[in-house]
Amino acid sequence: MDSSSVFANIVRAPEDAILGVTVAYNKDSSPDKLNLGVGAYRTEEGKPLVLKVVRRAEQMLVNDNSRVKEYLPIVGLADFNKLSAKLIFGADSPAIQENRVTTVQCLSGTGSLRVGAEFLARHYHQLTIYIPNPTWGNHTKIFGLAGLSVKAYRYYDPATRGLDFQGLLEDLGAAPSGSIVLLHACAHNPTGVDPTIEQWEQIRQLMRSKGLLPFFDSAYQGFASGNLDADAGSVRMFVADGGECLAAQSYAKNMGLYGERVGALSIVCKTADVASRVESQLKLVIRPMYSNPPIHGASIVATILKDRHISIYLNSIQKNDTMKEFLYSNEVLNNAHKDSGFIEINSTTGNIYSGMELQHVHYNICCIQKYIKNDFFDLLDPA
Ligand SMILES: Cc1ncc(COP(=O)(O)O)c(C=O)c1O
């Protein structure tokens, strides 16, 4: 009997708006089903795909008998942290050379955002964060539950299906000085609309003049322009001016490591001394949450980023024209287009913004198996 349970009064919570699509997909017995809920690499048969470069790295790790399963430090794998900072800020970043960056391994993009949010809620003087409207659905909850007050700034203009740049400037211009501003580093989710370089520069000038603190969310590095460096351009612009910022990185999408939960939070500070004090406090945030991060996924990423094949990896991402071709020719999407009257595949980012549901749903489809198979893995593994 329910009433005997101490939890009898618990109300059933709704499914998560995005992950709930996967739950519905798994329940559906139709042979024609296609999961558009979460962007993930798929084979031509629609099956989950593990990148060969990941399999290779895993093989190298398994064959290395010197590897053990001891706990990582609270901040994670040192190599992974260094390589992640280089990937986003650039190998020759003065901020890295001057030891002004602290990087901690976290549980993918979500965990990196949450650790950053908890740190800011404890130690930053302005507890308001501005997030774009619309944005990835989890942002509001991550920042709100960490104790920040979440406000929106205008971002997308449905009339032009482009950036509401004027609205964005007005809203950030009216934000109280010192406010935190969440910026999608590239391939904005869910719209696929990014500011141009010139617009980024204006955003940077406005934010710096008002002392607004940038918090970059980089979940799709490599997916917007097809070039990892170019996709980090927005972040690097804010680091080049010597100012401070936060950056959350996810390897879920660009290395297809979704379930491994690999990510990093970096905080760029004015001096090495501040960075080291910030890191000491990040440890206090992480320790009671999950003690220290898992070793496997971060080892895969570190192995790949260290490996000489990184250049091939970079090049493969640059070949995203084939990805676009594939997306455009996707029959299911074309049918969805007819049914819904509105589904848009962003021509540069491959992100898809749909009006099929009452609320906007993100269909960031990463069905890029064709270009991976043809151009990347054949090079890595010709046999
Ligand atoms: C904009 C954005 N940020 C962060 C994430 C976090 O993803 P994960 O926690 O799987 O790395 C996602 C995932 O879809 C996203 O779209």
Automatic annotation (TrEMBL):
Reactions accelerated catalytically: L-aspartate + 2-oxoglutarate = oxaloacetate + L-glutamate
Keywords: Aminotransferase, Pyridoxal phosphate, Transferase
Residue intervals of the Aminotransferase class I/classII large domain: 32-319
Extent of the signal sequence: none
Enzyme Commission number(s): 2.6.1.1
Tree of life domain: Eukaryota
Entry cofactors: pyridoxal 5'-phosphate
One matching Pfam family: Aminotran_1_2
Top-tier EC class: transferase
Sequence similarity: Belongs to the class-I pyridoxal-phosphate-dependent aminotransferase family.
Classification via NCBIfam families: PRK09257.1 (NF006719)
Further comment found in the protein's record: In eukaryotes there are cytoplasmic, mitochondrial and chloroplastic isozymes.
Summary of subunit composition and partner proteins: Homodimer.
Protein name as annotated: Aspartate aminotransferase
